[in-house]
Amino acid sequence: MxxxxxxxxxxxxxxxxxxxxxxxxxxxRDPERYVEDRELEAFRSGWVAVGVVLDDRDxxxxxxxxxxxxxxLPGGTLQRGESLDGGLVREVREETGVDxxxxxxxxxxxxxxxxxxxxxxxxxxxxxxxxxxxxxxTLGDDLGxxxxxxxxxxxxxxxxxxxxxxxxxxxxxxxxRTE
Length: 179
What we know:
It is a single chain. The chain contains four helices and seven strands, in the order βααβββαβββα. It has helices spanning 31-37, 41-45, 84-96, 166-178, and strands spanning 21-29, 47-54, 60-65, 75-77, 100-115, 118-134, 150-156. The strands form two sheets. Strands 1-5-6-2-4 form a five-stranded mixed sheet. The radius of gyration is 16 Å and the shape is globular.
């Protein structure tokens, strides 16, 4: 599969919301790595839902994986037949133990990889940063599923200095807090 095809039943939030923060990135991969990467779950699905999860004190929920020092918003790849808000609820629960009510998308990022030997051969996925409100702020103790290596989960009044993809994350959190 090439392009942003993914699961056809997902409605692109840019069709409904004109005020979304947008970002895009592209990487060129050698042919062997391109073939490996395009089989990753996010590329096969085409969609990733990430939570800008806020509690009643306006704190934002973040996770940290493995030995990466950067914090990131919880979320993950949609499963076949899953909506953006449905995938968001499932992923946040799996990764943090927190239940959420989805509010609305705040940002969309596009990630694209290109085969170095054939620039017409590419694949990609979209990441939707979705505002959600925590219905309970209690953090779980059995974080992630199967191959996920979530080592920490925490509530932050201000996003940590070292946050994954700050150019998309910071504006999405600001937008969620201003409405």
